[in-house]
Design brief:
Elements: H1 3-9, H2 12-17, H3 23-35, H4 45-50, E1 61-65, E2 68-72, E3 75-76, E4 80-81, E5 84-86, E6 95-96, H5 98-111, E7 120-122, E8 145-149, H6 160-165, H7 185-196, E9 200-206, H8 207-216, E10 228-231, E11 237-242, H9 258-261, H10 270-273, H11 309-315
Parallel strand pairs: 5-7, 9-10
Antiparallel strand pairs: 1-2, 3-6, 4-5, 8-11, 9-11
The protein binds zinc ion.
């Protein structure tokens, strides 16, 4: 590396991370290290975990947080069951904690009793050993996040090739303010059952779907809406996040909790309306604002960023 190149390619963010070192001294350190031949790019954790085709032979346990962790002893969701099909099998992300696999079977049995639904199409859960992924999700790292397609399965006889090629359906209008004609009472019934399950921590779904459920739910039956969290995207699928299982002392419960986020309510309020108003039409900014700090990206993590037990999971048989 030439001195000119070294100086030009060190991004400003590095200086923020290692406050105290001046830019000039960092260039010196970098060049010294390069000269000594000791600069070796650390492998990214998502490459290491993405390369594992099988789970670790351990007792099942989730480690860390949903967006920074891994999991040992995961089990496969069978590719096809009486009330479900796993989609996009080529990704090899149909692995979960046994609690997650039980949950999929439970919720899909409920879905199969809805008119027009043969069960559920199941999207990504986790990689065989969890961990960050080379593409897609920031979370889904500890075997407890499950995506379910919004597309009602008419039958559960899709071939592997069909499961790669067919698309889900969007339950959100193009202007992002209301549900689309694809939304049905059965979607609401399935999301209600999904949220009422005691294993669930929270569910992420597009805001118009929550707005519609806030409108249609009866006064006496609204508590479950607290677990339904509006978020960007999530109009082609909904995302169920399960609580930390009792067998996983290293699993970190998410904070703030849904009760804290909704101040003990059901979230059918102005914070929900924000998603279909100011979020889509941000008010004009009159004062200059600092850019938000760069958020950590799971694709940048190296093993040292993950809980120490993840090294064991990665190297286990
Ligand atoms: Zn998801």
């Amino acid at each position: 590396m030439t001195p000119a190149l070294a100086k030009a390619t060190i991004p400003t963010t590095i200086f923020e991370m290692i406050g105290g070192l001046s830019r000039a001294s960092l260039v010196c350190v970098t060049l010294l290290a390069a000269t000594a031949g000791s600069v070796v790019a650390e492998p990214k954790a998502n490459r290491l975990f993405g390369a594992k085709a099988t789970p670790s032979q351990e007792r099942p346990h989730a480690i860390g947080t949903y967006a920074k962790g891994c999991a040992g002893g995961l089990v496969a969701l069978p590719e096809t069951g009486p009330t479900w099909q796993a989609m996009r099998l080529s990704r090899n992300r149909n692995w979960g904690h046994p609690d997650a696999i039980d949950y999929v079977q439970r919720l899909s049995r409920f879905a199969a009793r809805q008119p027009g639904w043969a069960g559920l199409y199941v999207g990504d859960i986790s990689q065989p050993r969890g961990g960050p992924m080379v593409s897609g999700h920031q979370s889904h790292q500890i075997g407890l996040d499950i995506d379910f397609w919004m597309l009602p399965p008419r039958a559960l006889n899709l071939s592997r090739a069909q499961r790669e090629s067919i698309s889900s359906v969007s339950v959100r209008s193009n202007d992002q303010r209301r549900v689309s004609p694809a939304w049905t009472a059965q979607h609401a019934a399935i999301l209600r059952a999904a949220a009422r399950d005691p294993a669930v921590d929270r569910i992420f779904v597009t805001a118009p779907a929550k707005l519609e459920m806030c409108r249609s739910a009866t006064r006496a039956d609204r508590d479950w809406l607290q677990k339904i969290r509006p978020i960007f995207g999530h109009n082609f699928h909904f995302h169920v996040r399960l609580k930390c299982p009792s067998d996983s002392s290293g699993c970190v419960t998410q904070t703030p909790t849904v009760a804290e986020l909704s101040k003990g309510g059901n979230g059918c309020d102005s914070t929900l309306l924000w998603w279909v108003t100011d979020y889509l039409d941000p008010p004009a900014v009159t004062e200059p604002v600092d850019p938000p700090p760069r958020r950590p990206n799971a694709r940048d993590y190296v093993m040292a960023d993950l809980p120490a037990q993840c090294r064991t999971v990665l190297s286990a048989r």
